[in-house]
Design brief:
Layout lengths: L3 H168 L5 H5 L55 H12 L74 H6 L5 H4 L1 H13 L1
C-alpha cells in the first residue's frame, strides 16, 4: 500500500512532467509561431515590394500611352485645321472667281444695254424726223378737214335749236301746254296703291268676333258713360250714346252694320260666329306661315280638319239688331226737335 506521502509525490512528479511537456510543447509552438511570423513578414515585405514595382511599371506604361495619345490628338487636330484652311482658301478662290466673272458679265451686259439704248434712240430720232416731214406735208389738208368738221358741227347745233324751238311751239298749243311744263318723267295717274290681299289662308274662326271692328269707334277709349254731370264742358251726348251702344253689345256698334256676314241673313238664325271666349280681346293673328286647322280631339296623325282655301277675312258677324233698325225705330218727328234727344232714345232702344 502506497502511503499518502508517496502518492502525493507521485502526483507532483506527474504534474511536473505534464508541466514540462506543456512548456516544451509551448516553446515549440512559440518557436513555430515566431518562424511563421517571420515568414509572413518576409512574404509581406516581398509582396509590397512587388506590388509597388508593378504599380510603378503600370503607371509608367499608362503615362506613356497617355502621352502617345495626346501627341496623336495634337497631330489629328493640326491635320483638321490644315484641311479647314485649305477648304477656306478654295472657297475664297471660288468666290473671287465668281466676282470676277460677274464683273465681266456685268460689264458686257452694260455694254449691250448701251448699244441697245443707242439703237433705240437712233430709231426714235429717225421716226421723229419722218413724222415731222409728213406733218409738214399734211398740215394744209388737215387744216381744211378741221374747218369742215367745225362747219358741220355748227350746222347740226343750229338744226337742233330750230327743231327744239318748233317742238316747244307745238307743245304750247292748248292741248299740249301742260306737257311742256312737265319734266321728263312718265306721267302716271294719281291713284291709291292696290289693296294687299294676303295669300295666307285663314281658319273659319278667324278673325274672332269680339275683336271686331278692328278698333272701336272714335271715343270708345273714354270708357263707359258716367252720368252726364260727371262730363267736362265739351260733352258730346251723341258720342256717349255710341259708347253706350258699343258696351251693351259690341256687335251692335254703328260700324259693324257696314260689314255683313256671308251666308243666310235671316234674323231668326243665330249669329254665324258665336263669340269665342278668350283671355285677351285681341285678334288672333296667324303665326309664321303656319296653316291653321280646327283643333280637334287628338288630331295627331290625322289629316287637318280644315283644308284652308283662300278666303277674304270678313269684318264682322250679322248684328242681331242692326243699327239701321235702331234708327228706324225712332219716329221721324223727333228729328225736328233736338238731335241729341233722338240719338239718346235710339241708344236706349238698343239697350233694351
Amino acid at each position: 500500500m502506497v502511503s499518502a506521502e508517496d502518492r502525493r509525490l507521485q502526483l507532483k512528479r506527474q504534474d511536473e512532467l505534464k508541466e514540462r511537456e506543456r512548456l516544451s510543447s509551448l516553446g515549440e509552438t512559440t518557436e513555430s509561431a515566431r518562424i511563421d511570423l517571420e515568414r509572413t513578414r518576409t512574404n509581406d515585405v516581398r509582396y509590397l515590394e512587388e506590388r509597388n514595382l508593378t504599380q510603378a511599371e503600370s503607371k509608367e506604361a499608362f503615362e506613356r500611352e497617355y502621352r502617345q495619345a495626346e501627341r496623336e490628338r495634337d497631330r489629328e487636330r493640326e491635320r483638321r485645321e490644315e484641311r479647314w484652311r485649305e477648304k477656306e482658301f478654295r472657297k475664297e478662290e471660288r468666290r473671287r472667281d465668281r466676282e470676277q466673272k460677274a464683273k465681266e458679265a456685268g460689264s458686257r451686259r452694260e455694254e449691250r444695254r448701251r448699244d441697245k439704248e443707242e439703237r433705240r434712240k437712233e430709231k426714235e430720232d429717225r421716226r421723229e424726223r419722218e413724222r415731222y416731214l409728213m406733218d409738214m406735208e399734211e398740215r394744209p389738208k388737215d387744216r381744211e378737214l378741221k374747218r369742215q368738221d367745225r362747219e358741220r358741227e355748227r350746222e347740226r347745233q343750229e338744226r337742233e335749236r330750230r327743231d327744239n324751238q318748233k317742238r316747244m311751239m307745238m307743245l304750247q298749243t292748248h292741248a299740249f301746254y301742260p306737257m311742256s311744263m312737265m319734266g321728263p318723267s312718265t306721267p302716271m295717274p294719281l291713284s291709291r296703291a292696290a289693296p294687299f290681299v294676303s295669300p295666307q289662308a285663314y281658319p273659319d274662326s278667324y278673325p274672332p268676333i269680339h275683336s271686331l271692328p278692328y278698333y272701336p269707334p272714335y271715343g270708345y277709349h273714354q270708357g263707359p258713360s258716367p252720368p252726364a254731370a260727371a262730363y267736362h264742358p265739351p260733352y258730346d251726348p251723341r258720342q256717349a250714346s255710341i259708347n253706350q251702344a258699343w258696351q251693351t253689345n259690341p256687335v251692335d256698334s254703328p260700324l259693324s252694320a257696314q260689314y255683313p256676314t256671308p251666308g243666310p241673313s235671316s234674323a231668326s238664325l243665330p249669329p254665324t260666329n258665336p263669340p269665342t271666349p278668350h283671355a285677351s280681346h285681341r285678334p288672333q293673328y296667324p303665326h309664321s306661315g303656319a296653316q291653321y286647322s280646327t283643333p280637334g280631339p287628338s288630331s295627331a296623325g290625322l289629316p287637318p280638319t280644315h283644308v284652308p282655301t283662300t278666303q277674304y277675312p270678313y269684318r264682322g258677324a250679322q248684328p242681331s239688331t242692326p243699327f239701321s233698325r235702331l234708327l228706324a225705330a225712332v219716329p221721324p218727328t223727333d228729328i225736328s226737335s233736338s238731335t241729341s234727344s233722338w240719338i239718346n232714345s235710339a241708344a236706349e232702344a238698343g239697350a233694351t
